[in-house]
Design brief:
The chain has 161 residues and is mainly alpha-helical. It contains seven helices and three strands, in the order ααβααββααα. The protein has helices spanning 25-45, 52-64, 69-76, 80-92, 114-134, 142-154, 156-160, and strands spanning 67-68, 96-101, 104-112. The radius of gyration is 22 Å and the shape is extended.
């Protein structure tokens, strides 16, 4: 007597289509949303001569002030080599400078320049209509709801405070 074949499983398979109920559905939707939003925001930055990777560093520098280069890698989710290239680009464009840290010759802090702050502000102005376009198909209040949900999802400890 041969054993019965195993019962077929009814686990939903990922499709990356609307209505996907697989365990991967949320991740796939977030990935698709990120690609769409990143492409739109890249369009705002392109005329300013920078890319999203540059802007990610400028965000950290504008928020934190002078920041050790290794901390920029962690803050932006990049690796050391990638951050080095981005900071090289920003320095070449006059948007940031590396400075020695007193008492520690091995550590360099990166600081946004006044030109970098001007570009940072210009990027926000350029992005505003594009960001509004990203959520144009949402109903009133849904943009704020989406932002609140994504904030709780990505920063759970902040939402508990």
């Amino acid at each position: 007597m041969t054993p019965d074949p195993p019962e077929p499983t009814h686990t939903p398979r990922a499709t990356d289509r609307p209505g996907d109920t697989s365990p991967f559905a949320l991740g796939l939707l977030l990935r698709r949303a990120h690609r769409h939003a990143a492409a739109v925001m890249a369009g705002a930055l392109r005329p300013l001569g920078i890319e999203l990777r540059h802007f990610a560093v400028l965000i950290v520098l504008a928020d934190r002030g002078p920041t050790p280069q290794r901390d920029l890698a962690e803050a932006t989710g990049s690796d050391k080599a990638g951050i080095m290239r981005v900071v090289d680009d920003l320095e070449h464009k006059g948007l940031a400078v590396r400075k020695a840290v007193p008492g520690n010759r091995r550590v360099r802090e990166v600081e946004i320049t006044s030109l970098g702050l001007d570009l940072f502000d210009a990027a926000h102005l350029a992005a505003k209509p594009l960001a509004e376009g990203l959520v144009a198909d949402l109903r009133p209040g849904e943009s704020e709801q989406l932002t609140e949900l994504l904030t709780r999802f990505t920063h759970p400890s902040v939402s508990e405070a």
